[in-house]
Specification:
about 140 residues, mainly alpha, Cytochrome Bc1 Complex, Chain D, domain 2, binds heme C
Length: about 140
């Protein structure tokens, strides 16, 4: 009898927790998003996914080429970067569509790319945050 009561209580608690978890959603979706926050979120996303290999400072090539001014540029043209795969050719222009494709799955755009072990970002919102952030980093 006691056992039964305990089990029942646990189930009810789990259901209650599930409901509580849903509650904040409308507030978050409706909240205004000042551009400052957007830029911060973009920088955080960049730092999380990209900064281990990329800088956004001019001429600061690391494991990957600097991404300063990369938005709007032709692919594979960063001066002084010696580790290009050869798969990023200047016919590719870095705009929203090409960057989104590359960041989803680098090999889909350049099959022999050396941008590994970066495996791509599945979350479209994260990709957009990063692309918008790159636009603010020296793009002409
Ligand atoms: C593990 C290291 C690594 C990570 C992590 C990484 N990259 Fe790269 N990235 C590279 C390398 C190496 C290249 C050169 C690829 C090639 O030549 O095929 C590159 C190339 C690029 C290019 C093309 C540059 C050009 O000159 O055309 C862009 C754009 C880019 N990366 C963006 C990103 C973004 C944005 C992120 C984070 C979401 C990221 N990368 C994460 C290593 C990395």
């Amino acid at each position: 009898m006691k056992h039964h009561t305990t089990k029942h209580h646990a189930v009810r608690s789990a259901v209650a927790a599930g409901c509580l978890a849903l509650l904040p959603l409308p507030a978050a979706a409706g909240g205004a998003a000042p551009t400052d926050n957007g830029e911060d979120a973009g920088q955080v996303a960049f730092n999380t996914h990209c900064r281990s290999c990329h800088s956004v400072k001019p001429e600061d090539n690391r494991l990957g080429p600097t991404l300063h001014g990369i938005f709007g540029a032709s692919a594979g043209q960063v001066k002084g970067f010696a580790n290009y795969s050869g798969g990023l050719t200047p016919e590719i222009k870095w705009d929203e569509a090409t960057l989104d494709k590359f960041l989803t799955d680098p090999k889909a755009l350049a099959s022999n790319t050396t941008m590994t072990p970066f495996g791509g970002i599945k979350d479209a919102d994260q990709r957009k945050l990063i692309i918008d952030y790159l636009k603010t980093q020296g793009a002409s």
